[in-house]
Write a structure and sequence with these properties.
The complex is a heterodimer of chains A (225) and B (81). In chain A, 22% of the residues lie in helices and 25% in strands. Chain A has five helices and eleven strands; from the N terminus they run βαββαβαββββαβββα. Chain A is of the alpha/beta class. The longest helix of chain A is centred in the last third of the chain and has 12 residues. In chain A, the strands form two sheets. A nine-stranded mixed β-sheet of chain A has the order 2-1-3-4-11-10-9-6-7, with helices on both faces. Chain A has a two-stranded antiparallel ribbon with strand order 5-8. The radius of gyration of chain A is 16 Å and the shape is globular. Chain A has a single domain, classed as Rossmann fold. Chain B has one domain: Phosphoribosylformylglycinamidine synthase subunit PurS (Mth169, Chain: A, 2-Layer Sandwich), CATH 3.30.1280.10. Chain B has a three-stranded antiparallel β-sheet with strand order 2-1-3, with helices on one face. The relative contact order of chain B is 0.35. The chains are: A alpha/beta (225), B alpha+beta (81). Chain B: One of its GO terms (molecular function) is ligase activity. Chain B: Keywords: ATP-binding, Cytoplasm, Ligase, Nucleotide-binding, Purine biosynthesis. Chain A: Pfam families: GATase_5. Chain A: GO terms for molecular function: ATP binding; hydrolase activity; phosphoribosylformylglycinamidine synthase activity.
C-alpha cells in the first residue's frame, strides 16, 4: 500500500506540482489539497510547497496561515502528523507558530537562485531520517525572504535541542542566524526548510538527487508507524 | 470619520536591510542628515464615527495576530480624527 501525502495549493503556490512529483517518485501517492477546504482527505503527511501564497502580501505566509486547510494541519501537527514546509511553506509554518522564528528579507536584498550546499545536522526528524549525520547535500535555493531570524533565547533553544536540521555551507546566502537553512519542532514531525528538495530529485533537472531523501525519509517513517 | 492607525516596525534587534539600503541611498542624493533608517508599515483603517473601546480592542487583537508578527515586529495603535 502506498502512503497518501497531501500537497497544499494556496493561491500563488508555485511548486505544488514539483512537490507532488517528488512524493510520487519517492513511492507515495500525492493528494492535492486545496487551501479553501479544511478536508485533509485522509492523508498521512502534508507538504506545504514553495511559491508566493496570497502574493506574499503583508508578510510571506501571513495570510496563508488563516486558510481553512491550515486549521486542520495545525491541529493534526500537534498530534504528531508529519508536515514539511518548503520555502514559502516554511514561512507559513513560522507564521502559524508551528515553528519558532521568522523569515525576513535576504540581507543583501537580492532574490537569490542558486544550487546551495547544505549540511544535514539532525537526522532524527521524520523528514531527515534517511540522511547520514553531517551529510552534505546540494539542492536549489530560490527566495527573496529567506533570512532566518529569532531572538537569542530561541536560537539557544534550537541549538541546544538539536532542532537545526540543516545549515548553509561554504556560502552565506541570506544572513540567517547561525546559517540556519531549516529547523524542526520539538517532536521532529514538523520541518521547515528554505531550499527546495523537490527540485533535486532527478539528475536531468536538478543539481543532484539529494532532495528525494526528504520524501523517502517520511515515507519510511510512516511504514514504521 | 475617524481613522485608526496601526504602525508596525521591525524590532530593533532584527536586521532591516531595506532601511539600510535607504540609508545608504540618501547620501548619494546629497542628503547627509541620516545616522540610520528603519523602514516599517502603516495601516489606515476607516471606521464609521469615533471608534468604540470594543472596536479598539478588536483592532489591537488584529494588530497582534495579523497586521504584525510579534516574533520580529512591534506595533502601535492610535486614532486620527
Amino acid at each position: 500500500m502506498s502512503f497518501r501525502v497531501g500537497v497544499v495549493t494556496f493561491p500563488g503556490s508555485l511548486d505544488d506540482r514539483d512537490a507532488a512529483r517528488a512524493v510520487e517518485m519517492a513511492g507515495g501517492t500525492a493528494v492535492p489539497l486545496f487551501h479553501a477546504s479544511d478536508d485533509l482527505k485522509e492523508v498521512q503527511a502534508v507538504v506545504l510547497p514553495g511559491g508566493f501564497s496570497y502574493g506574499d502580501y503583508l508578510r510571506c505566509g501571513a495570510i496563508a496561515r488563516f486558510a481553512p486547510i491550515m486549521n486542520s494541519i495545525v491541529t493534526a501537527a500537534s498530534h504528531g502528523f508529519p508536515v514539511l514546509g518548503i520555502c514559502n511553506g516554511f514561512q507559513v509554518l513560522c507564521e502559524s507558530h508551528l515553528l519558532p522564528g521568522a523569515l525576513t528579507r535576504n540581507s543583501n536584498l537580492h532574490f537569490l537562485c542558486r544550487d546551495q550546499k547544505l549540511k544535514i545536522e539532525n537526522t532524527n526528524t521524520v523528514w531527515t531520517s534517511g540522511f547520514k549525520p553531517g551529510q552534505e547535500i546540494v539542492i536549489p535555493l530560490k527566495n527573496g525572504e529567506g533570512s532566518f531570524q529569532c531572538d537569542d533565547e530561541t536560537l539557544k533553544m534550537l541549538e541546544s535541542e538539536g532542532r537545526v536540521i540543516a545549515r548553509y555551507v561554504d556560502f552565506d546566502p541570506n544572513g540567517s542566524r547561525n546559517l540556519i537553512a531549516g529547523i524542526s519542532n520539538e517532536r521532529g514531525n514538523v520541518v521547515g526548510l528554505m531550499p527546495h528538495p523537490e527540485h533535486a530529485i532527478e539528475s536531468l533537472t536538478g543539481p543532484s538527487t539529494d532532495g528525494l531523501t526528504f520524501f523517502t525519509s517520511a515515507l519510511q517513517q510512516l511504514v514504521g508507524r | 470619520m475617524a481613522k485608526i492607525i496601526v504602525e508596525v516596525m521591525l524590532k530593533p534587534e532584527i536586521l532591516d536591510p531595506q532601511g539600510q539600503a535607504v540609508a545608504s541611498a540618501l547620501p548619494r542624493l546629497g542628503f547627509t542628515f541620516a545616522k540610520s533608517v528603519r523602514q516599517g508599515k502603516r495601516f489606515e483603517i476607516e471606521v464609521d464615527g469615533d471608534p468604540t473601546p470594543a472596536q479598539m480592542a478588536e483592532v489591537e487583537k488584529a494588530a497582534e495576530t495579523l497586521l504584525s508578527n510579534p516574533v520580529i515586529e512591534t506595533y502601535v495603535v492610535k486614532v486620527e480624527k
